[in-house]
Amino acid sequence: MRFPDPVISVSVKSKNKQDQEKFGVALGKMVRADPSLHLETDRETGQTILRGMGELHLEVTLDRMRTEFGVEGTMGEPQVAYRETITKKVSEQYVHKKQTGGAGQFAEVWIDFAPLDRGAGFQFIDETVGGSVPKEYVPAVEKGLKIQKEDGVLAHYPTVDFSATLTDGSYHDVDSNALTFEIAAKAAFREAVRKAGPILLEPVMKVETVTPGDYLGDVIGDLNRRRGSILDQLERGSNIAVVATVPLSEMFGYIGHLRSMTSGRASYTMEFSHYDPVPRMVADEVIAAVAKAKAAAAS
């Protein structure tokens, strides 16, 4: 997966459904008329992403949509697909109990949560014995965890790289069912993860910048300022390729800055490398920004 072109997120200013449809039609016409424009929807964030030959090119595209089609669009940086994970082992007991006059609701679960290696994803293990949780209800516990892990406790990003081991529980012959165990599992996840040292993870890209030697110091200094780690320097003909890992959040707008810094003589490619913990100060900013955006959307 490579991203050599400038990218922006685009959306229509109006919340009117007719205006939104008009904006989509206009955007489609612009892309069909200009082969250098590329439109896609980010599967993770749901944003509409527009790629072009430069920031000015993308700005002109939105301006033409306003003058030629009468639709007003907004542009901004694409959202970063952050993740959340845990750093400590936690054992959580949760009892879901509700009585509403008729049939009640009851389910008890004991679940051990533990961090896994980066990239391991999610693992569910059933270690119950003696029918403490009937076998027909165990899949409901797993389902509840899978649903709830998509809504992390820090900034509502998916939680990854952890295991959940169902060790014990209890049920009621009348008041227990698959739904009650699903609810109990969701609540157990929310309670446990808050105690398990949750942290934010960010996507880190492998970046290769090819530059004339005259600009090597400037290129390396700029990558360092972007929280990059230099991995290697390779000869590429008369140029030098600087290989580094850099957080994706620091790479938006890089191509324009790189061209300006090297008089248009450098280029770069990047591809996804791995996820790394986000530094505390940066994580606090991300969490605050998400909370602000959700508050604004709710108002």
Task: Describe this structure in a few short sentences.
This protein has 299 residues and is an alpha+beta fold. The protein contains 7 helices and 13 strands.
Number of helices: 7
What structural category characterises the helix and strand content? Answer: alpha+beta
Average pLDDT number = 90
Contiguous uncertain segments of 5+ residues: none
Query: How much helix, percentage-wise, in residues?
Result: 25-40%
Shape: flat
Q: Proportion of β residues?
A: 25-35%
Task: Write the H/E string, N to C.
Answer: EHEEHEEEEEHEHEHEEHEH
Beta strands, count: 13
Tell me what you see in this structure.
The protein has 299 residues and is α+β, with helices and mostly antiparallel strands. It is 33% helix and 32% strand. It has 7 helices and 13 strands. The protein has helices at residues 17-33, 55-69, 138-148, 178-195, 216-225, 254-261, 280-298, and strands at residues 7-12, 38-41, 48-51, 73-76, 83-85, 90-98, 105-115, 122-126, 162-170, 199-212, 229-236, 239-247, 267-277. The strands form 3 sheets. Strands 5, 10, 11, 12 and 13 form a 5-stranded antiparallel β-sheet that branches. A 4-stranded antiparallel β-sheet has the order 2-3-1-4. Helix 1 (17-33) crosses helix 2 and helix 3 packs across helix 4. It is flat. It starts with 6 loop residues before the first strand and ends with a helix. 27% of the residues are buried. The model has no long low-confidence stretch (mean pLDDT 90).
